[in-house]
Known about the structure:
This protein is mainly alpha-helical. It has helices at about 15-25, 30-40, 45-55, 60-70, 95, 100-115; strands at about 45, 75-80, 85-90.
Amino acid sequence: MRSAGDGENNVRPRSRGLTRDALRVLEGKWKIVIICQLFGAKVPLRFSQLEKRVEGVNQKMLIQQLKELEKDGIVTRTVYPQVPPRVEYALSEMGIALGPSMAELIDWAFMRRDQRNGTPQDPA
Length: 124
């Protein structure tokens, strides 16, 4: 595992491209929030349910971000042939594989918040 002090020159050129591609998939104000909400739900969510869980996002942006996540293989979209149409969103296998990374990111966010607020950290 690399430490924070490792320089850019120690990273293999191929991994730099992979990292850039992975970050591109997750970039955007709402994608990580959407992924976290789908993780937290543990079941597929209808668009309206997801819209309520992602506070502050407008409908157009949510649709755009979901389309991009679907295109990148992170989210699956299932349309049920009924009237009115029922559409559900869930994490794909690739999206589920983000679980450990998302948990680490959330832990880091708490650690950062605590450090900024001067709150002592939990001893591990």
